[in-house]
Write a structure and sequence with these properties.
heterodimer; A: 293 residues; mainly alpha; 62% helix; B: 312 residues; alpha/beta; Alpha-Beta Plaits; seven-stranded mixed sheet; four-stranded antiparallel sheet; elongated
């Protein structure tokens, strides 16, 4: 059942010159992923929306006669430019942030399935592990860029349009403008761990489903279901485990006697979700037979 | 180093549930050889090539490329290997040049060296004029050529091409075959998968023919020619079912259903004459009879549509 023959063409001249290839590092693969991402209209539009939408929102809310008093900090949006970024943060955490990160993270692996390019990249010198971590790094970096752009645009537009007056805290205490600025910044920063966890979840769904639609939509739906579950009574033991709970951890920063317990438990919850989702995603990709494309 | 085989696959097996896609295939390709893997669709050629590239893990057996296995050296096993499986795929929203630049990066190439190399391979496949166009607008043939360019980018010693002329128009097929022959003549080891006997006959030195995941022939094209039966004939009747059934009483001729309808009859000329006479005598209307296949094609159909295994 075997055959072997002597070389027949070995002495001929090469068609192209010889070149010595190196070994790609994760950062090299990461640079390639960033290049691809930058070429995608979806990524560019997402960042543009993050930049422009808060400005529009601030202008619209500023013009409203009746502020949304039943929302956290809603009643103060005409009185301090620091209230609106917190109102928007509370709203964004419900589904906007999971959606924004899923737009890239939910697509970054499934996109290779969609274009049939797994076989193209996996027949080069980069390993599956390098590709996995480069893609993960890209999705995580994009999530953080989205958060920073959204926070910066919201805070700047709100302060410029409404002003930088003192802020009324959750205990009714008056927070000086400079302190309010730091607290608003810190509040937005506390959204990073759960946002990264949602990114990891979207990555897992992207790897497992091989469908960009599922990778993008499912994290949003899961987030909404978690919020619904979190709002139910009698599930106090379960609530800290939900990925939506850490999005509310910043509330402890805006009271007179600050407490940091929710921040710590939120960071732990986010880290656990991250580790579990990425481990499952990595294992799935590593073991997968690439039969399509 | 020259004694080391380019491909040394031993007992390679892949199963999907109860289906054995590749069944204990052993295949050895020497350096500098142009080797064909031939078989009809579903024979297991592509599954074999995917295992060679590490895209699919075999259930049993081993593959060594230039003396190295994936278990020992990881992705370094592909250091001297390039090619494409089925139709090559690229990112449609990027230009050909940017696609190649990204793939070069995955090979650890960047900067001026990579840029020069990209120009070089684009020239080889005659795509320099379209290099800045998005791949999404490329024709099938252009993507095939870009696939060859992407393979040459990493300066392979073994080029693996899975049905490179598949889906191309006659001119595209001619150009692709000419390109493969030119690459082979340059000293590359080429492993070519195809379902086209003529293509393999034209390009390859040695061939493995597969059917339903198993090897039914392996040896040189010259040996294969010697084994080839008489010219194949295409036969069309007003009742192909009965004409086909009639062949069961005549063991000296092979009658199989043609890919595009009708029957394909192979055997010695005298036996074919007797069979045709028997068809007419049986009251079956004869509509057409003509030369259908080259002898090698006839042998290919015999090998891949019957259970016989031939080895050298």
């Amino acid at each position: 059942m075997t055959t072997q023959s002597t070389p027949t063409h070995a002495d001929a001249a090469p068609v192209v010159g010889h070149i010595t290839a190196g070994r790609p590092g994760v950062l090299g693969v990461f640079a390639w992923e960033v290049t691809k991402l930058a070429a995608r209209a979806r990524a560019r539009w997402t960042l543009l929306v993050c930049l422009a939408a808060p400005v529009v929102l601030v202008v619209v809310l500023k013009g409203q006669q009746r502020p949304p008093k039943d929302s956290l900090f809603g009643r103060y949006i005409h009185e301090s430019g620091w209230a609106l970024p917190l109102l928007i943060l509370g709203f964004a955490a419900q589904w906007v942030l999971p959606l924004l990160t899923a737009l890239v993270a939910g697509d970054i692996f499934a996109n290779e399935d969609q274009h049939g390019t797994w076989k193209t990249v996996l027949t080069r010198s980069a390993s599956r592990a390098q590709l996995f971590w480069a893609k993960t790094l890209t999705a995580m970096a994009f999530a953080l860029v989205v958060l920073v752009v959204l926070a910066a645009s919201t805070m700047l537009s709100s302060v410029l349009i409404v002003g930088h007056q003192e802020l009324v805290g959750l205990s009714g205490q008056l927070v000086p403008s400079a302190t309010a600025a730091r607290l608003v910044l810190a509040s937005w920063a506390t959204a990073a761990p759960p946002l990264l966890a949602f990114t990891a979840l979207a990555i897992l769904l992207s790897v497992r489903s091989r469908s960009p639609a599922v990778g993008i939509a499912a994290p949003v739906v899961i987030g909404m279901v978690m919020q619904l579950v979190g709002s139910l009574g009698g599930i106090e033991a379960l609530r800290p485990l939900l990925l939506t709970t850490p999005f509310e951890a910043w509330h402890g920063l805006l009271v007179e006697h600050r407490f940091y317990g929710p921040l710590v438990s939120g960071a732990i919850t986010s880290a656990v979700w991250c580790i579990v989702a990425l481990t499952l995603a990595f294992t799935s990709l590593h073991r997968r037979d690439i039969t399509e494309g | 180093m020259d004694d080391v085989l380019a491909v040394d696959a031993v007992g390679l097996t892949k199963r999907y549930g109860s289906l054995t896609a590749v069944d204990a295939i052993t295949l050895k390709v020497a350096r500098g050889e142009v080797y064909g893997v031939l078989g009809p669709n579903g024979a297991g050629k592509t599954t074999f090539l995917r295992m060679l590239f590490g895209l699919i893990r075999p259930d049993a057996g081993s593959i060594r490329l230039f003396g190295q296995s994936r278990d020992e050296v990881g992705t370094r096993v592909l250091d001297h290997v390039a090619g494409f499986i089925e139709s090559p795929k690229f990112y449609p929203y990027l230009s050909a040049r940017r696609n190649l630049a990204g793939l070069a990066r995955l090979d650890g190439l960047s900067g001026r060296g990579a840029a020069h190399r990209i120009e070089e391979v684009l020239e080889v496949v005659d795509l320099r004029d379209r290099a800045d166009d998005r791949v999404g607008g490329f024709s099938f043939g252009m993507r095939q050529r870009l696939g060859v360019a992407a393979s040459l980018l990493r300066d392979p010693q073994l080029l693996v091409l899975d049905e490179p002329a598949n889906g191309l128009d006659p001119a595209g097929m001619r150009d692709m075959r000419a390109l493969v022959k030119r690459l082979a003549a340059s000293g590359l080891t080429v492993l070519l998968s195809s379902h086209d006997m003529l293509e393999v006959e034209e390009i390859c030195d040695n061939v493995t023919i597969m059917r339903s995941g198993s090897v039914v022939y392996h040896g040189s094209i010259a040996d294969l020619r010697e084994r080839a039966p008489a010219q194949g004939h295409s036969l069309s009747t007003d009742d192909d079912e009965r004409a086909h059934a009639l062949a069961a009483t005549m063991p000296d001729v092979s009658v199989v259903r043609g890919a595009e309808g009708g029957l394909v009859v192979t055997g010695a000329q005298a036996d074919i004459d007797r069979y045709v006479l028997a068809v007419v005598t049986a009251g079956i209307g004869l509509r057409s009879l003509g030369i259908d296949e080259t002898p090698l094609e006839s042998l290919f159909f015999l090998l891949t549509e019957r259970t016989t295994e031939v080895t050298t």
